[in-house]
Amino acid sequence: GRRRLPNGSRPPSQAQVQQVRTQALSFSRGVRSHGVPNFPDPGSDGRIPDPATAGVDQGSPAFQAANQACRKYRPPYVPSNSAYDTWARAHTGGGS
Questions:
Q1: How much is the pTM?
Q2: Helix (H) and strand (E) counts for the chain?
Q3: How far apart are CA 17 and CA 58, in angstroms?
Q4: How far is the CA of 76 from the CAs of 12, 31, 92, in angstroms?
Q5: DSSP letter string, the chain
Q6: Most buried among 18, 56, 72, 75, using CB within 10 Å?
C-alpha cells in the first residue's frame, strides 16, 4: 500500500501547490514593486523562502510598507509587521 506521511496527511495536490505559489508570487512581485527589489520569489514548493536569506530586513520601513500594501496576497507563513516586530523584540533583546 501507499506509505503515509509522518503527519498522516496527504501531500498537497498539484492544484493546491499551484494556487499557493500563484498567491505567493503576487505577494513577491508586489513587495518588489513597492521598493524591496531583492525580495525572493516562491520556490518549487510554492513557498517564499525566508526573506533574510536574500538580505531582506523584515523590520525595515521599506519592507513594512510593502508588506502592508500587499497584505491581501500575503501568505499565512509571512508574518504581519506587528507579528514580526513582536518576534524581533523577543529574539534580538531590544534591537537597535
A1: 0.81
A2: 3, 0
A3: 25
A4: 16, 15, 23
A5: -PPPPTTS-PPPPHHHHHHHHHHHHHHHHHHHHTT-TTPPPP-TTSPPPPGGGGT--TTSHHHHHHHHHTGGG--TTSPPHHHHHHHHHHHHTT--
A6: 56
